[in-house]
Amino acid sequence: MTEEAEAMKDEIAEVNDASTTVAPTLPGSVPDELHGKLTDALADLSEARADYENAKEAAKAAKTRFDDANNWLATVAQKVSDALDGKVEAAPMFDAAGQATSEAKADDNGTLKPEVANESIGVLGLSDGIIDKLIEGRIVTLGDLQKRFKDKGEWWNADIAGIGPETAAKVQDAYNAFVFPDAPKN
User: Fold this and answer.
1) Higher pLDDT, 69 or 135
2) What confidence category does residue 107 fall into, taking pLDDT thresholds of 50, 70 and 90?
3) Could you tell me which residues are beta bridge partners of residue 106?
4) pTM of the model
5) Taking residues 90-119, what's their average pLDDT?
6) 3-state DSSP call for residue 108?
7) Exposed / middle / buried, residue 10 (Cβ in 10 Å: 0-12, 13-18, 19+)
8) Which is more confident, 31 or 39?
9) What is the DSSP string of 125-160?
10) Under a CB-based contact definition with an 8 Å cutoff, are residues 160 and 116 in contact?
11) What is the tens place of the pLDDT at every residue in 37-68?
């Protein structure tokens, strides 16, 4: 038994002793002092239960955030590992003579070819600041960016800090110029 429980037991014993020497109580009634202590204990229990439930919800939310971050990190680590192991070959931007290649990077439906989808967003030629913001938004490869375009439509950038409408337009233009180099420019 803990010291606190032992102290509570002693207090209850004192109250019981006092109640027998003070005034007789009706059978089944509880002395006022003990009733007060029980009421306080129930209030403490209720408050502790509420604190526990709040903490449980906060822990659940933190676990979800942790799992999401862990999954994202594992995905990025796997992509980096694959690239370092040579499992993903970058499509050359220039041929042997130094001429820009215009080999198709997407199929007729606009879906990136697998080797292009695994390329880093760094190939788009955007500033380091924009690249950093995209990575913070969990966009690491061209495939990630295309998926974001498809999933979120014109609001693909809404939940990425630092990527407003002007920057979003720059990213989209760079993506389109890279993936569809032969398309007419506006």
Assistant:
1) 135
2) confident
3) 112
4) 0.47
5) 63
6) coil
7) exposed
8) 39
9) ---HHHHHHHHHTT--BHHHHHHHHHHHGGGTTTTS
10) no
11) 888 989 998 999 999 998 888 888 778 778 77
Residues 6+ apart with CB under 8 A from 140: 75, 76, 79, 120, 121, 134
Which residues have CB under 8 Å from 23's CB, separation 6+?
A: none
* Strand partners for 112: 106
Helix (H, G, I), strand (E, B) or coil at 64: helix
> Looking at the predicted structure, is the pLDDT value of residue 167 above 90?
yes
Name, in order, each residue with C-beta under 8 angstroms of 7's C-beta and a sequence gap of 6 or more. none
What's the CA gap between 116 and 91, in Å, rounded?
Answer: 7
Q: Which 8-state DSSP code applies to residue 22?
A: S
How many Å apart are CA 40 and CA 112, to the nearest integer? 66
Q: Looking at this protein, which amino acid is placed at residue 70?
A: N
- The set of long-range contacts for 114-120, using a CB threshold of 8 Å and a minimum separation of 24, is 115/88, 115/89, 115/90, 115/91, 116/91, 116/142, 116/143, 116/179, 117/141, 117/142, 117/143, 117/146, 118/79, 118/82, 118/83, 118/88, 118/142, 118/143, 119/88, 119/90, 119/91
